[in-house]
Structure to design on (174 residues):
């Protein structure tokens, strides 16, 4: 996250992200005034946000994955229909993307490789569970995702390409 934004609440960051993403016609001075007058940002914070504006005009960021939040951003390439990240995705980024995908398909689980699936419980919290390759409807115990099982942008026993395949070409199951 940009050091000038560390003290800002998520709600304020979301509004800044929305202004940078959706307020395309307004000149920089108008956006700066909104950020300073309505959101109580300092001039320095507003200028830092405005400096990021060109990226928001040419890249589609996954919500919460923009340069406002982190240096390793996650964007969506609409032509190739896949996520793009300059560096390997972090544990938190992967889980955020799993959650986003699952929220778009209520009642479904996201297949993760041959033997695992992710899902959202009734409280909207992410979980993982084993998959029976013969009967995908059987539900085993549910677990939290283990941060220690995620290394260098991939899950243990997978390549980075295999880990990313679950989000670049998602397979939803009941």
């Amino acid at each position: 996250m940009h050091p000038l934004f560390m003290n800002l609440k998520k709600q304020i960051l979301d509004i800044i992200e929305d202004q940078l993403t959706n307020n395309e016609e307004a000149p920089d001075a108008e956006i700066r005034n909104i950020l300073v007058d309505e959101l109580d940002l300092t001039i320095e914070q507003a200028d830092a946000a405005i400096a990021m504006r060109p990226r928001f005009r040419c890249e589609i960021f996954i919500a919460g994955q923009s340069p406002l939040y982190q240096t390793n951003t996650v964007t969506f390439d609409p032509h190739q229909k896949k996520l793009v990240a300059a560096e390997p995705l972090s544990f938190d980024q992967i889980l955020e993307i799993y959650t986003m995908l699952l929220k778009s398909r209520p009642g479904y689980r996201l297949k993760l490789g041959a033997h695992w699936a992710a899902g959202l419980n009734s409280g909207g919290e992410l979980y993982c569970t084993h998959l029976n390759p013969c009967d995908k409807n059987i539900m085993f115990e549910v677990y939290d995702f283990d941060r220690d099982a995620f290394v260098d942008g991939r899950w243990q026993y997978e390549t980075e390409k295999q880990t990313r395949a679950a989000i670049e070409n998602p397979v939803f199951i009941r």
User: Anything to note?
Assistant: The mean pLDDT is 85. The longest strand covers residues 116-120. The CA atoms of residues 88 and 152 lie 7 Å apart.
